[in-house]
C-alpha cells in the first residue's frame, strides 16, 4: 500500500529541496556581490552613489517590494509566467524606489529644503529615506500579524489600496515626531526623543519582532486571539515590547563584546 502522506522530496524540476535552496542562496549571493561592486564599492563602482543617494534608493526599493508582495499580493506580475514574473517584479520595485527618491529630493526638495538633494553629506536623502523605517514596520505587520484586517475580505487591488492608505497615517506621524526634529532644517536634535542611531537600532529591533512572530512563528502568539481588532492591538503592543527587549539585548551584547569606547573610535554611524 502506497502512502500518500510521505513528504515531497523535490521542489521543482526534479531538484531535491536542499539543492534548490543552495542554488537560490548562491544566485542571491552572486547578484548581491556584483551589485555591491557596481553600485557601492568605492574602489570598483563608477557611480560614486554611496552612501547617498544609493541608500535612499535602496530603502525605497525595499518598501516598494513590500507593497507589491505583501500589500498587493503581487497583483500584476503574478499573472506572468516565470522568469518574466520575477523580472517584472524586480523592475517595478526598482522603478518605484528610484522614482520616489528622485521626486522627494529633486521635486519636493525644491520646495522643502529638508529633503533637498543639495544638502551636505546627503542629509536631504537621509531625511526622506528614514520614512521607510516606520513604513516597513506598519506594512509588514499589517500583512503578517494583522492578516490584512480590516481589508482581508476585499478583492485586489481594493484590498491593497486600503492597506496602503491607512498605515500611512501612523507611519508619517511617527516619522514627524521622531525623525524630523533630528534632520529637518528647522529641527534641533537636542529636543529629539531619540538620536538617529538609537532610533534606527530600536525600530529595526521591533521589525525583527514582527518578522519572527509573523513569519517564523506563523503569527504566534497573536493568532490565538479570535477578535481581529483585539489581535491588531495586542500584536502592535506586543511586537513593540518584544522589539524593545531585542534592542536592549543586542545593545548589551555589543557593549560586552566591543566596550563603550569602540563606537566612538570608529566614527559617526
TrEMBL record:
The chain crosses the membrane at residues 17-37, 57-75, 87-111, 123-144, 164-186, 192-217, 229-249. It comes from the Bacteria. Keywords: Membrane, Transmembrane, Transmembrane helix. This is Tryptophan-rich sensory protein.
